[in-house]
UniProtKB/TrEMBL annotation, chain A:
Pfam families: Ribosomal_S7 (PF00177). Belongs to the universal ribosomal protein uS7 family. It comes from Nesidiocoris tenuis. Keywords: Ribonucleoprotein, Ribosomal protein. This is Ribosomal protein S7. One of its GO terms (cellular component) is ribosome.
From TrEMBL, chain B:
GO terms for molecular function: RNA binding. It comes from Nesidiocoris tenuis. InterPro entries: CHCH, Cys_alpha_HP_mot_SF, Ribosomal_mS37_met. GO terms for biological process: mitochondrial translation. GO terms for cellular component: mitochondrial ribosome; nucleoplasm. This is Uncharacterized protein.
């Protein structure tokens, strides 16, 4: 009790750089305009804010989901490498789609092909999000895989992690960015390895639906 | 009052301590605490099982393509978000120690609050 109180006075988490009174920064122009429009900006004028992350920018090309994906691709803190890989991935997606577009014979065929790489990226991540997940629950000496709901954050992470894992999986016959580009295009079209993996999870959930009421033992 | 190897002082080999001669010392107060522990308090059962099984049945019927099950999915997600919000509210109320009249199952915060108010 006392410990909880003390911690809540000092900071939300031990080792936290900013205390709980610090709010998330608004660094995007659209966000600021929105705040100005609603009049929220006068309320938050005198409260402390966290420092904006070093990758934050007011550029219209900034995309929060792409930023998140880049951070998931990153290993050992090599952010520049991760950013280069993402740029090459999107370039590869664009090349493949433009090639398809140019190869298409009729106008109807051309109209169906999406050549915006960012749109394909967003759609791929959206399509790979699982709806349910399995969690192990120990009951009477046996461990059951119980289907439960999945939070939006967890679904988003799972989707991106599966895409990265699929691009890294053997055979290593192509570069990571080219494989990831193909995975993104396939996932956006509702086909491919990752969509299959999601459906496998849903099938397992369906098979274990009898355990659904076991949640938390 | 305990005899044997936990008795205070030295007992010679082959002898045993007479429990009536051991001076009594009150190590911890001989009364019940005015609080209860939090063990076994964080159990909440499954929720939205009905909605989940409806969703899974629909997905099985449509070969796991969820675009055919959007109504079932929205009803499941709505149920989950509503239940989670209600649980969160209930938990916060229990943490504050709010007491609803006629409540049967009390949280450890509520019981501790009552014991603090009416000790003895």
């Amino acid at each position: 009790m006392l410990r909880g109180r003390l911690l809540s006075v000092i900071s939300a988490r031990q080792m936290a750089m900013f205390g709980p009174e610090f709010k998330e920064p608004h660094f995007r122009k659209s966000e600021l305009e929105e705040l100005q429009k609603t009049g929220e900006i006068s309320k938050i004028g005198h409260i402390p804010f966290k420092a904006a992350p070093s990758a934050a920018t007011v550029s219209p090309l900034y995309d929060p989901l792409l930023e998140k994906f880049t951070n998931y691709v990153m290993r050992k803190g090599e952010k520049q490498l991760a950013r280069d890989l993402m740029a090459k991935t999107l370039q590869s997606v664009k090349r493949i789609q433009v090639q398809k577009y140019n190869a298409a014979q009729t106008e109807e065929e051309k109209a169906e092909i999406e050549i915006n790489a960012m749109k394909i990226f967003h759609k791929a991540v959206e399509n790979c999000k699982p709806l349910l997940t399995l969690t192990p629950v120990k009951k009477g000496g046996a461990t059951y895989q119980v289907p439960i709901n999945i939070t939006a954050e967890k679904a988003s992470f799972t989707s991106m992690n599966w895409l990265i894992e699929a691009a890294k999986s053997p055979p290593k016959d192509a570069r990571f960015y080219n494989k990831l580009a193909h995975e993104l295009i396939n996932a956006a079209a509702g086909t491919g390895k990752v969509i299959k993996r999601k459906q496998e999870l849903h099938k397992q959930c369906e098979a274990n639906r009898a355990y659904a009421h076991y949640r938390w033992g | 009052m305990r005899a044997g190897r936990h008795a205070p002082g030295y007992v010679a080999r082959g002898k045993f301590a007479d429990p009536w001669k051991i001076p009594f010392r009150e190590m911890i107060p001989l009364k019940l605490r005015t609080s209860v522990s939090a063990r076994g308090d964080n159990r909440n059962g499954a929720f939205c099982v009905q909605e989940m099984s409806v969703l899974l049945a629909c997905m099985k019927k449509n070969e796991f393509e969820e675009r055919h099950c959007s109504t079932q999915l929205t009803s499941f997600q709505k149920c989950v978000s509503e239940t989670e919000a209600a649980l969160k509210q209930k938990k916060a109320a229990a943490r504050r120690g709010d007491l609803a009249p006629g409540e049967k199952k009390l949280s450890h915060h509520q019981v501790t609050g009552l014991l603090k108010k009416y000790p003895g």
